[in-house]
Amino acid sequence: MNEILNKVFLMNTVRAYIICAVTLAAGIIALRVIRALVAGRLKKLSERSTVPTDKMRLQSLAGRIFLLLYTGVIYFSLGILQLSPSIERLIATATTAILTVFAVKVIISAIAFLIDMFWIARDEHVRKEGLGGIMTTINIIVWGSAVLFFLDNIGIKISAVIAGLGIGGIAIALAAQALLGDLFSYFSIFFDRPFEVGDFIIVGEFMGTVEYIGMKTTRIRSLGGEQMIFSNSDLTNSRVKNYKRMEQRRVVFKIGVTYQTTVEKLRIIPEIIKKAVEDAGNTVFDRSHFLSFGNFSLDFESVYYVKSGDYNQYMDAQQKINLALKKEFEERMIDFAYPTQLVYISKEK
Prior knowledge:
This protein is an alpha+beta fold.
């Protein structure tokens, strides 16, 4: 028996081949048992989660980790055998490449999972296109680092490559300042979130609803229907009014009555306005005052709040107020003012 076990084939004894096979089989069986236990645990965790993507992400992450472990078992088992330098080099290179690729996928999956958990913990509703831009940048950084790591491990000196990339990076950065500025502005918009898709915003003299936030540009649909495209740096450098975040709207409006209106009627006008505002619904009256003597009218200024930022609700309330004032003024014989002119003609001899 010992004679058979000690026979040599391709630089290795039969005993070494058996040990290699047993080690490989034992490692695979052990990993399969562990994977079954982990799968059961992950199933329980995913059932507790309220997020439907958690189960998919956890299973994907676990699968990639076990692929790494399988590769490690194979590499360790083959290490028992004596191989020619060229084959050892080939196996080492292939193993390094496989481990690097799997490690990158595990890192990216873990980062994506942590980002999801971070936003869910903050009770934030981040749209997929926003996370897509972040993940694209992360992919570029992680894969770039992985390539440098792989080249270094297979014996290629990367110091000169890094130096060349440094000089080239400076040149590229100088040539692409606007693009990089928009990219950093995108991260600022994503993390600081001054506005989101669906928000109605005003930027300078332009206004509209945000339709898309990209890594370079943001698209806004104007009230007229056309699409406006802004660079992200323009938005972060501008004063942006976000009406979607408005919890209540303050409304100031003025009305004018004729100079022929009596003092008694002038005194009751603020009360008429107050009642009209309170009856409009979803409104809070603030004040109403006889403001000034205008060119052709006695002016009243009134202030109230609409308990919503929705523009349509504001217009509905203002319409009810206007109709109520019109009706009440007609009943009390109070005339609204309108531009008039008195022309005096003197007859000269």
